[in-house]
Backbone:
């Protein structure tokens, strides 16, 4: 039965609004996060109640093809059409109400929600000799070009000037087996304390899981990071940069060797110097070094603290290759989950305020993890590897089913959930991951156009009034005497050589012509287009 007022309809929905198929996982966590942050209360007649607003912000990260008003309509479309709970109005809230409500909700609710969600994924299955493989890697996220975003996150710079959009630097820790983001850290694109190594250490200081195996790229190499792994009894495999020199102290039977990795760390027990500087101490770590190469490419050095002889060098090298899976996760998030319609700005985030960009970041990762958790459930049910189930196809099935499952007037929620899991399990990737190596090149280089600045504004011009036809050649006059008209023939415009030749002949005989025949007109009058060509 339809109601007359929108506020009355949402008052009937009440604070128990939940968005399926994620409600069983996230609904209790939303209630806890809102209560902890003091955001659970709302006034009577409020349409964007806290629970609905949280689900709306999450939905904004999977429907980038719609604006905020249309995402809200999609979110409650099942209630509108299957249960007729909403009045016949196309606009649910006024323009700007969603952004205003998001600002009041803040960032901390979604930060707490992300921490609670990842807390439910603590029991990960071991995937490599009793260890849980996790991968570190960084990326960047573009955002709309606004003053707030630029002041907070900055723009990348190069010799050609600043970038087109402000960018955020993001570091993520991903569990390899389920491809779930376990933790994130972010900062401005440039400035002190915004580097990837700094962000990695922020995440390392918060890790509570044990028996982890870190896969890291050479850009994240630092002695402090490796020592932290030793102290917390974590294992690591990292690609060493060329500057690191490791002398063998023992050669192993599989071709690898043991070496001492030396460095300096702060000594917390030593008193500071007279000038107030902190003291350092030398530390050495026993590591295993593996040198490998692929024909046609430079040799690679891997450093690890996996010293057990039953783990061969070849196993370690092949397993390190799985580090690329986090790049696939970034592709799923930035290319597929954040997909926009053709013609929209190619930005990862849609928010125009810096605080809402941070809110959107946590919402983005939460929704990615929720989709990945549903894929893991479907894979477990059908005994499949979740990494070989298509994220894009699964996301599309979830988008199609979500409004219908949210309304669910038939009471068949459990049956529909099982059907959705069966659909997701059937979304096998059409071809396995190919064994290939691509050169590090780009297809399109930077543009040669001038860089846009504040002076480049659009101009309002009346094309119909201002446009004129350029008369490059004048037509032959038609009011000449008959005897002169015989001599004048129109020279083709594409033959300037012939035009100049006729002009030279005329300049030679023009004085004689004027004296002998007064009726002959001037050549410039007879051939004005030739006269113009000569002048040029």
Residues:
């Amino acid at each position: 039965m339809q109601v007359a007022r929108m506020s009355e309809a949402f008052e009937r929905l009440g604070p128990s609004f939940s968005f399926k198929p994620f409600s069983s996982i996230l609904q209790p966590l939303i209630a806890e996060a809102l209560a902890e942050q003091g955001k659970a209360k709302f006034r009577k007649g409020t349409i964007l109640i806290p629970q609905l607003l949280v689900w709306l912000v999450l939905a904004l990260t999977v429907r980038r093809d719609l604006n905020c008003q249309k995402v809200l309509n999609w979110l409650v479309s099942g209630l509108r059409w299957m249960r007729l709970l909403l009045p016949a109005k196309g606009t649910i809230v006024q323009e700007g109400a969603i952004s205003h409500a998001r600002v009041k909700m803040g960032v901390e609710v979604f930060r707490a929600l992300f921490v609670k969600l990842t807390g439910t994924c603590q029991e990960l299955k071991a995937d490599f000799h009793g260890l849980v493989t996790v991968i570190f890697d960084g990326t960047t996220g573009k955002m709309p070009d606004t003053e707030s975003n630029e002041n907070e996150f900055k723009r990348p710079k190069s010799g050609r000037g600043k970038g087109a959009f402000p960018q955020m630097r993001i570091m993520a820790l991903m569990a390899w087996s389920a491809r779930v983001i376990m933790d994130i850290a972010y900062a401005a694109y440039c400035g002190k304390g915004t580097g990837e190594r700094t962000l990695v250490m922020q995440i390392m200081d918060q890790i509570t899981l044990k028996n982890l195996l870190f896969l890291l790229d050479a850009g994240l190499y630092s002695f402090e990071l490796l020592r932290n792994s030793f102290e917390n009894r974590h294992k690591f495999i990292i690609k060493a940069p060329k500057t690191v020199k490791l002398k063998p102290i023992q050669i192993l039977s599989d071709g690898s060797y043991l070496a001492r990795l030396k460095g300096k760390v702060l000594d917390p027990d030593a008193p500071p110097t007279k000038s107030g500087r902190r003291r350092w101490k030398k530390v050495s770590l026993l590591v295993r070094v593996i040198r490998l190469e692929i024909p046609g490419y430079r040799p690679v050095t891997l450093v690890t603290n996996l010293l057990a002889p039953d783990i061969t060098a070849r196993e370690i090298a092949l397993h390190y290759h799985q580090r690329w899976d986090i790049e696939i996760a970034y592709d799923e998030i930035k290319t597929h989950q954040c997909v926009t319609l053709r013609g929209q700005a190619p930005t990862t985030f849609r928010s125009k305020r810096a605080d809402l960009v941070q809110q959107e970041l946590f919402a983005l990762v939460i929704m990615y993890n929720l989709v990945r958790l549903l894929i893991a459930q479907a894979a477990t049910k059908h005994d499949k590897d979740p990494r070989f189930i298509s994220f894009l196809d699964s996301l599309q099935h979830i988008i199609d089913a979500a409004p219908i499952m949210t309304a669910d007037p038939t009471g068949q929620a459990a049956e529909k959930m099982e059907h959705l899991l069966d659909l997701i399990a059937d979304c096998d990737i059409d071809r396995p991951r190919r064994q290939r190596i691509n050169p590090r090149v780009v297809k399109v280089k930077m543009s040669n156009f001038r860089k846009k600045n504040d002076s480049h504004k659009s101009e309002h011009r009346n094309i119909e009034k201002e446009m004129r036809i350029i008369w490059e050649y004048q037509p032959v006059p038609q009011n000449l005497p008959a005897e002169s008209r015989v001599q004048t023939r129109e020279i083709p415009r594409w033959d300037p050589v012939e035009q100049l030749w006729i002009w030279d002949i005329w300049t030679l005989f023009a004085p004689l012509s004027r004296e002998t025949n007064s009726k002959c007109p001037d050549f410039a009058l007879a051939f004005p287009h030739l006269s113009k060509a000569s002048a040029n």
